[in-house]
Amino acid sequence: MQLLKQKVLDEGIVLSNQVLKVDSFLNHQMDPVLMKEVGREFTRRFAGEAVNRVLTIESSGIAPGIMTALELEVPMIFARKQKSLTLRDDIFVEKVYSFTKQETNEITVAKKFIQPGDRVLIIDDFLANGEAAFGLARIVEQAGATVAGIGIVIEKAFQPGGRLLKEAGYRVESLVRVAALDDGKVTFADQD
Ligand code: 5GP
């Protein structure tokens, strides 16, 4: 997605050779016009998948998630992150190791919002090792629903998440794929 690539080039800050900061349009300040285009692009890519729910994770997945859900005209659910939890039977719970915070969170979704037979599109802002996406996929599967696809705004293709998710059989669509973050510079994996 050319518009997004340009935004990453213009405003992305390379914090290390592992971490890209995009707090001017996605992770702190948000660009609603760009997010609208992100929602349109995911909708175009997953048009044939009969999606009836969008699932993301708080907080940075919510903007791309809601814009995609708006375009698809389906509800969006965001998984909540919690430190530790007392046992409850009305929620799905999965453990997810956070790449940026280097800690394990429990992520939860109320059971009433995902039903058997649902076709759920998972959306997230970044893909690194795939922890968040796998955690969300396990919640969908706990519910007896199907992962219709996984849409990622920025995939860091030098980390293994994309490959692992595809090997697990999921359809992954990333709007931009970053090949490297070397020497303070962003290099993209795809030429388009
Ligand atoms: P994963 O779960 O795939 O290992 O990492 C993805 C999650 O970690 C995303 O939800 C995102 O919040 C965060 N993340 C991973 N890498 C980056 C990065 O380079 N920049 C930012 N801003 N967030 C990242």
TrEMBL record:
GO (cellular component) term, any one: cytoplasm
Question: NCBIfam families from the xrefs?
Answer: PRK09219.1, XPRTase
On assembly, the entry states:
Homodimer.
EC identifiers of the protein: 2.4.2.22
User: Which CDD domains does the entry mention?
Assistant: PRTases_typeI
**Lineage of producing organism:** Bacteria, Bacillati, Bacillota, Bacilli, Bacillales
Keywords on record: Cytoplasm, Glycosyltransferase, Purine salvage, Transferase
Q: Which family does it belong to?
A: Belongs to the purine/pyrimidine phosphoribosyltransferase family. Xpt subfamily.
Q: Which reaction does it catalyse?
A: XMP + diphosphate = xanthine + 5-phospho-alpha-D-ribose 1-diphosphate
**Gene that encodes it:** xpt
Could you tell me where this protein is found in the cell? Cytoplasm
> Which leading EC class covers this enzyme?
transferase
Q: Which domain of life is it from?
A: Bacteria
Q: In which pathway does it act?
A: Purine metabolism; XMP biosynthesis via salvage pathway; XMP from xanthine: step 1/1
Q: Which PANTHER family match?
A: HYPOXANTHINE/GUANINE PHOSPHORIBOSYLTRANSFERASE, XANTHINE PHOSPHORIBOSYLTRANSFERASE
| GO MF annotations in UniProt | xanthine phosphoribosyltransferase activity
Q: What is this protein called?
A: Xanthine phosphoribosyltransferase
Annotated residues for binding of 5-phospho-alpha-D-ribose 1-diphosphate: A128, N129, G130, E131, A132
Q: What is the protein's known function?
A: Converts the preformed base xanthine, a product of nucleic acid breakdown, to xanthosine 5'-monophosphate (XMP), so it can be reused for RNA or DNA synthesis.
Biological process terms from the Gene Ontology for this record are: purine ribonucleoside salvage; xanthine metabolic process; XMP salvage
Q: Which InterPro entries match?
A: PRTase-like (IPR029057), PRTase_dom (IPR000836), Pur/Pyrimidine_PRTase (IPR050118), Xanthine_PRibTrfase (IPR010079)
Give the binding site residues for xanthine: L20, N27, K156
Species assigned in the record: Paenibacillus rhizosphaerae
